[in-house]
Design brief:
By secondary structure, the chain is an alpha/beta fold. It has helices spanning 14-32, 48-55, 108-119, 177-180; strands at residues 7-12, 39-44, 63-70, 83-86, 96-104, 124-132, 145-149, 155-156, 172-175. It has one domain (13-154): 3-Layer(aba) Sandwich (Rossmann fold).
Length: 182
């Protein structure tokens, strides 16, 4: 069974993803060169491909941590209820933090996590995202590093899922509505 048959169109192809990771890696390397061992936090599960590819283009000593945080509890829209399922193992007090995210949509999850990390004493907290969907915002939120801005469509692939499927697609595509409106 091919997953590609469920994709209406490809929004960000493999080559574009590679170029985005290279560009963002250079920007982050330049911006963080004077900072002492920043922590890059990946928000599971969707961040995994992006964080892995991006980290290879950051030419600095960085630590990598993960948190399992979600406001999507099945379905295609945010519930508004942000849950932390797995916290980090490292203290962020006095540290520069870079959160790697697959997509910024409503802004709720990241707003909550940024406030939490600042409350824990982080020196700075910035966001790097592969995809920015500003039309989906329910609260004002602007990531510092953006791969590409996308329209308000339901996207899957390259870490993004629908009911835990499609994460392994090597590109980001728009899921056909008939798949999630059954």
């Amino acid at each position: 069974m091919s997953l590609a048959k469920d994709i209406k169109s490809i929004l960000v192809n493999e080559q574009q993803i590679k170029e985005i990771c290279e560009r963002l890696g250079k920007e982050i390397t330049n911006d963080y060169k004077s900072k002492e061992r920043p922590i890059m936090i990946g928000l599971l599960k969707g961040c995994v491909p992006f964080l892995s590819d991006l980290a290879r283009h950051i030419d600095l000593p960085i630590e990598i941590e993960y948190m399992d945080v979600s406001s999507y509890h099945g379905g295609i829209s945010s519930s508004g209820d942000v849950k932390i399922r797995k916290d980090m193992n490292t203290s962020v007090a006095g540290r520069d933090i870079l959160i790697a995210e697959d997509i910024v949509d409503t802004g709720r999850t990241l707003d909550t996590i940024v406030k939490l990390l600042k409350h824990r004493g982080a020196k700075s907290v910035e966001i790097v995202t592969l995809l920015d969907k500003p039309a989906g915002r329910v609260i004002p939120f602007e990531p510092k590093y953006v791969g590409v801005t996308i329209p308000k469509e339901f996207v899957v692939g390259y870490g993004l899922d629908y009911e835990e499927i499609y994460r392994n697609l090597p590109y980001v595509g728009i899921l056909k509505p008939e798949i999630y409106t059954k």
